[in-house]
């Protein structure tokens, strides 16, 4: 769909009596198209076989993630200097869409490792931390986890109950993190915790915690509605001694670190939602051409045609929002609002499209072999994690009104 396709968009921003133009040319480069094709091929040959069984048995796609790491998909945007592929955020969107068409449980690992873990480490860590933690993660030799949510703190991330008490050379970490993607398979965990409650969100730190540190235990795997192949756990910290050298940035930088990192993460999840929608749409088009009722393919009934037309239109709009957010990021522009808009819209499109794709399949849509019921279950999480749809609206309205 992208090949030889040219997008052009002029964004005119008016403000403070100034107006300026930002010209966006979304003609993809040869490199971007090659990466997209590679992700497409990987999804078809490596992810599709076994995707139904992995979902059914909640099996983490360990072999597939290892291969994705070897191919450079786990540190896509990290500079080659630190073992990454040095690609742009537009390529990342293209890859996330292709992988998510087939297996959103695998693509969430790619998203978390790239945008919540590697991005934060490369942007905000010192050289020593980068060499020690970023390099193996960017090379895909290890995977990472981002640990902000708690039993009592999801949307309201400022009310952290996990504490990191300053003990001089180290922080004493205590508390519980909830819903942590890659929780059971990660080696490196970026943990957000409150050091000085009196300072509110300015008293929060981000610490790099290693698997195996004394007092750190991983809870049982969550039994989920969707993205069942992904690995979601609670984590418990009981008097874990985390060296001061493992703090990211200055004292009190942790909350800002988490919010800035999530801005980029939302591009990844928006593209995941886009891919889930696009995957369901492609299956619906194929099925509509094959399935006959009343002497003709259901694609010849206008009710079905209109569903496909709505799906195609909304998916294209979601794609443009994802690419715009990525383009802004690649060009050093503020992308917070664009990332939230992309996530809000793409996740709503994913939910709506997958429900309609099941409908197009009739009874066959309700059973596992046809894939669309899984995509419908997987779509739901994109409206919840990395900021619910309601939280995206708060972010967008805050940006509009500031
Ligand atoms: C499968 C899965 C994987 C996850 N992975 C991670 C991870 O890797 N790392 C991590 O840190 N977290 C992760 N999360 C946690 C996820 O980010 C949170 O679940 C999410 O932010 C919502 O928080 P909550 O569940 O506490 O819901 P709550 O914050 O309790 O929200 C409940 C409802 O109230 C709404 N609401 C809350 N506040 C407001 C408001 N001010 N205005 C309007 N509506 C509001 C919400 O939108 C939601 O509908 C994951 C969650 C799941 C399910």
Please give a structural write-up.
The chain has 402 residues and is an alpha+beta fold. Helix content is 49%, strand content 18%. The chain has helices spanning 30-47, 51-57, 62-70, 89-102, 104-124, 127-138, 254-290, 302-330, 336-361, 372-381, 389-401, and strands at residues 8-15, 18-25, 144-147, 163-166, 170-181, 188-194, 204-210, 216-221, 232-243, 292-293, 296-297. The strands form four sheets. A four-stranded antiparallel beta sheet has the order 4-5-9-8, covered by helices on one side. It is globular and about 80 Å long. It starts with 7 loop residues before the first strand and ends with a helix. Residues 1-20 have low confidence and may be disordered. The structure holds flavin-adenine dinucleotide. Residues 112, 146-149, 154-155, 179-181, 224, 227, 232, 381, 384-386, 388, 390-391 line the site of flavin-adenine dinucleotide.
Task: Tell me about the largest β-sheet.
Answer: 4 strands, antiparallel
What's the N-to-C terminus distance? 38 Å
Main-sheet strand order equals: 4-5-9-8
The topology string of helices and strands comes to EEHHHHHHEEEEEEEHEEHHHH
The tally of helices reads 11
Helix content: 40-55%
**Strand element count:** 11
Helix vs. strand class: alpha+beta
Shape: globular
> Uncertain segments of ≥5 residues (pLDDT<50)?
1-20
Please, what is the average pLDDT? 94
| Amount of beta strand | 15-25%
Rg over CA atoms, rounded to whole Å, is 21 Å
Bound molecules: flavin-adenine dinucleotide
